[in-house]
Amino acid sequence: MNTVKFGTDGIRAVVNEDLTVETAYKLGCALALYLLEEEGKPIVYIGEDTRKSCAMLKSGLLAGLLSYGIDCVCLGIITTPSLAYITKKNKANAGIMITASHNAEQYNGFKVFDSSGQKIDIKTALVLERYAQIISHFKPKVAKEVGTLKNDNSKIKNYLSHLRHKIKENKFKVCFDCANGTTNFIIGKIFNPNQIVSGNEVESSLVNLNCGATDLKKLQIKVVQEGYDVGFAFDGDGDRVMAVSKSGRVVDGDEILYIIAKYLKMQGKLKRSTVVGTVVTNYGVEKSLSNIGINLVRQQVGDKFINLEMKRKGYNLGGEQSGHIIIGNETTTGDGVLVAITLLNIMNELNADLEDLTKEIIKFNQSAINVEIKQENKDYIMQNYDFNEFLSRLEDEMSYNGRILVRASGTESLIRVLVEGESKSMCESVAKQIEKRILTLNEN
User: Fold this and answer.
1) Is the fold of 11-156 the same as that of 365-443?
2) Catalytic residue among 82, 101, 367, 409
3) CATH number given to 365-443
4) Fewer C-beta neighbours within 10 Å, C or N terminus of the chain?
5) How would you classify the pairing of strands 295-299 and 230-234?
6) CA 416 to chain centre
7) By the 8 A CB rule, do 434 and 404 touch?
């Protein structure tokens, strides 16, 4: 399958199976045709993560863009938030990040940003999908009108300067796990490079492998054994961050959201005393926020949906349990490094470590399972009447002691199951029952 199909967070699939050079070419052509509707000479910035497949996909993407007369600037290996920042600051018409974010090496994909550094909305994504289907109806430019290509990795300097200006005096001993990804090219330039403790091989086959924001075991051990006050872990493209306290406890995106929200409210800077979370934000954290006078508004999973809600309602903070945190007056997308700096600044200003800052947070038990299914069965399972009746009965049996959330992944052949409640054993039992039912439906 070589079609251009956007999911929750852009386009993402296994390389040379559902994601090929032809997919990249069609996306390039589609974006070119869309941009040519605007006035002036369009320019697109392109960034990439550390995967070997980025070079192959970039060649297809460039072929599509350049053949329709779009000028392109390749920024090299950079983080997703830095691409968004540079796109906006340099007034480019669009930015494209070649990345599969937190996924393993065999995956890759594209995140597309508009001129304001925001991920494109659903309407624009549908237009691009449509153009990709009908590119054979359009003729590329003649030779003298094709686009020009520049390679320019110097534009990252403004972003690095932006981050350095955010760092205040730090009295805490801190270390970082860069997931063998793009933050390796950021952290070492704004912090002491000796503090990068794992996930710093910058090797394609190692990206997100047993490290980073999706696997914190190495960081937890390092923090405890070597006496660090705090550790931060990013994902492959740097838009997520998770933290580890001095005792080795994981502080996830929900808790990070609480810490920053409480601080902003203390400063009188939390707009409308409200933060934006998602359907998977821990209910205990929602109660904790309510206890300090902060309202939580839930959106569907995906930082672009959080950002959209923030823009629409005038909120200035939102985030996901997975570590995407958007500070509205600072970023247009999740920015792991900036959020880590923000947390450090709060710790230093309040002279409090993560143990202190999280002690008031209530956390409900959650059991989360990703069930692999056949891609073509997604709609059948999710819309199956008997399955949804089964879920309703389970939730009734849990009474008011928990909740069930079952949703199809927007980027992978998975159905995600989340069961939340006061009893850990109950959550695990219910999640296993749902998994079993999904697998049975998948085989029918």
Assistant:
1) no
2) 101
3) 3.30.310.50
4) C
5) unpaired
6) 17
7) yes
With CA atoms as reference, report the closest residue to 284 among 308, 305, 254, 264: 254
Q: Domain residues of the chain, as ranges?
A: 11-156, 165-358, 365-443
Sign of CA dihedral 209, 416, 333, 147: positive
- Angstrom distance (rounded) from CA 94 to CA 441: 42
Q: Domain 165-358 in CATH: superfamily?
A: Alpha-D-Glucose-1,6-Bisphosphate, subunit A, domain 3 (3.40.120.10)
Q: Does residue 272 come out as left (phi exceeding 0), alpha (psi in the -120 to 50 range) or beta?
A: left
Q: Over 90: is that where the pLDDT of 64 sits?
A: yes
Per the CB < 8 A criterion, the answer to whether 404 and 349 are in contact is no
If 0-12 CB within 10 Å is exposed, 13-18 middle and 19+ buried, where does residue 81 land? Answer: buried
The pLDDT tens digits of the residues spanning 115-159 come to 999 999 999 999 999 999 999 899 998 888 999 999 999 999 999
Average pLDDT of the residues in 302-319: 93
Residues facing 327 on adjacent strands: 317
Tokens of 15: 């390389």
CATH class of the 11-156 domain in this structure: alpha beta
The residue whose two tokens read 């796990």 is: 177
Closest CA to 407 of 376, 378, 443: 378
